[in-house]
Amino acid sequence: MKKLFFVVGTRPxxxxxxxxxxxxxxYPDFDFCIVxxxxxxxxxxxxxxxxxxxxPRPDFFLETxxxxxxxQTASVMTAFEDLCIAEKxxxxxxxxxxxxxxxxxxxxxxxxxxxxxxxxxxxxxxRSMPEEINRIVCDHVCDRLYAPSPTAMKHLExxxxxxxxxxxxxxxxxxxxxxxxxxxxxxxxxxxxxxxPGHFHIATLHRPxxxxxxxxxxxxxxxxRETDEKIVFAIHPRTxxxxxxxxxxxPNNIIITEPLGYFDFLALLQHTAKVITDSGGIQKEAYxxxxxxxxxxxxxxxxxxxxxxxxxxxxxxxxxxxxxxxxSPAAADFSQPFYGHGNAxxxxxxxxxxxxx
Length: 357
Description:
Blueprint: E1 2-8, H1 11-17, E2 30-36, H2 47-52, E3 60-61, H3 69-87, E4 91-95, H4 99-110, E5 115-118, H5 130-141, E6 144-147, H6 150-158, E7 165-167, H7 171-186, H8 189-192, E8 200-204, H9 208-211, H10 214-225, E9 230-234, H11 237-245, E10 254-257, H12 262-271, E11 274-277, H13 281-288, E12 293-295, H14 303-307, E13 311-313, H15 319-327, H16 344-355
Parallel strand pairs: 1-2, 1-4, 2-3, 4-5, 5-6, 6-7, 8-9, 8-11, 9-10, 11-12, 12-13
């Protein structure tokens, strides 16, 4: 059988992967192998998603150095190169814009193994973000690019890459459709936290410019303190460490949780009033669930969500502006199928398996 490597290393990667194993039996000539790079090595940040989503255990797990951006990328690249030389895959599939995807794409390209980039064409036009560098390089070295939206396709056209691109929709939408019902049936998070549907907000923060700066982090927490609703704050390890370091007190209306499993997150998302985040993927998930999103970033890759009123960018990240965004009524149009119809994984796999025959 022909081996196809699907490379994951972080929570978003694993969610994007989740619709793919369900379709594996349609392609009997191929062995779908999952390669976990170890980029998110904490159980709650990684393994819980495999368990919840009933995904096959990774076929290969790489030992990597997670101390710095460069060391992480280099260690994944060298370990993945060794694996490819030993196992001889006919193709490598990478997801999104994390260091693992960059490293695997570079290794595959240098070994002349066809490489396929899922979630191609995203641009924030902010080169200070490591993710922006990663996604640009992946798009330019990979052989086939799978764009999740017309906006992403336009970016690829502007860079002269449209000849190797396919507009297919977003696999994260596939994942939500696959798992939303399961989440409602299995998750007990609403009862455990004593929440009333529509009377709380979800918050997530992890970007260095929000959580590493004491003043900015204090402003964000101050805005959350003054909202009229409970806030479920799924706290990233980096954020938790800095809150303690900076002696920032958590107000009574904020419910702190560890990083959430996917089912718990989906269950909360179905019942939240709004989403407050600096995540890229969660902005989309909020749109899929028809929930207004407040994004604490200077820019977003998902500009179509801003244009339709579903997503409010708070570029200043000051307490006053954040609070105004949270408390302002949303006038959003969630009707546009920006991200396809929930069959992106099928379109992508049909194309990949045709390319490597």
